[in-house]
Amino acid sequence: MSFEFDTPAKRSKLPIAKKPVWARIAPGVFLGYRKSPEARKWLVRYGRPYVMSVFANADDPETVATGVETQTFTQATSSALKIAEAANVPVSRSAIPVTIRLAVEEYIAVRNARDAKIKGRDVRSDADTRLTKHVLSNAELSDTLLRKVTADTLRDFADGLALKPANKKRLCADLKAALRASWEKHRKALPTDWRDEVTLGLKTGEDVENSREIQVLSPEQMTTLMTTIKEVDRSEGWEGHLYRLFTALAATGMRFSQLARMTGSDARIQQRGAGSDCVLMVPASRKGRKKSATKPIKRIVAATDFEIIRPDESIEANEPLLTRLQNVEIAPLVWQSGACVAWRSASEIDRVWKKIVKRAGIPRHTIPYALRHTSIVRQLKAGLPVTMVAALHDTSTAMISKHYAAFIVDASDDMIAAVTFGIAA
Predict the structure, then answer these.
(1) What is the pLDDT of residues 10-53, one digit of tens each?
(2) DSSP conformation letters of 324-336
(3) Domain boundaries, the chain
(4) For the chain, N or C: smaller number of CB within 10 Å?
(5) 288 Rama class: left (phi>0) / alpha (psi -120 to 50) / beta
(6) What is the pLDDT of residues 321-364, one digit of tens each?
């Protein structure tokens, strides 16, 4: 459908006038454009008697589209329909332009809701940050109708990103997920090969080179690191909470999000034969899981580590196992330690981790996830089967084989050498 003012070029030819120009965008709903000497405005009109309101600036050459105060024609159409719908005006959902923007915004809402449920508070997901910065800020791309999206459209966008390969890969994965989710809702209105076009357009080639090998810490580095964490814990008033967390991370190699969900009942002493084991029952990861996959992972840890992770029996079965002190503002810019609360986000250790890395003298690019890499490599070098290492770290054998292949080969060579003997007479 063609409109009299759907592009800046068309609007530039309209005369300056007090009265707006109107276009019907849905039954009983009209989008208006007013070109006055002072500004260029979008208006909406609906109902009987009708209600009229100004809601945004138009993206004419004098202004720049931001998607909030200034909107393109497609954005304005969507906003006008939402305003009318909020006023209980019956609006067909098919009247709302199905654009990349709509698909991304719906996906962001889902991701934010999921992360908020996991962390127990309103949060902004990583996908929200990436997609808002690189996709929603691109008016030309985000206002493209889904039915007009092609592999070339997406490929041109991806090629123009000034991002590191790994960051580009994450962004393209988020955008692909958003568009595929929209495909499930609007497949009847989209070409049959549309999903294939999305896949081709956002393909980032072979997996980018990862830094897992340089993130594996030597035994000496691990000793220095844990000693430093203990010192920082004492000097900065963490009261043992920081050291307990990192002891659990290093001893199990599990993800932060899994350990943060452990409760007092997940740390236990189990009898085995004449002896006993110090056991941590780590909740299964939510990453890529179906809701039914909730079986915890049993990890046996050293008694010395267990005593640090669970220092006493006072932790109730349903209380968080790993906690931190919550800072409370008692006066403007005056804080003091309050009650113990559960860890919620890995970002809570970002600042102190930088101090730890610097003080420990390990490579400055080292991240906390290095503790997981180190745990996996340590078990591979000890000769544990790949399937067992994968199970103990709650991941797949495919991921272990893909990212730690060099260590698997090294471990296999050691085992083969150990059983090799000469047979010559």
Answers:
(1) 888 899 988 899 988 877 889 999 998 888 899 999 887 888 99
(2) EEEEEEEETTEEE
(3) 8-95, 100-201, 213-416
(4) C
(5) left
(6) 999 988 776 667 666 777 888 898 888 899 999 999 999 999 88
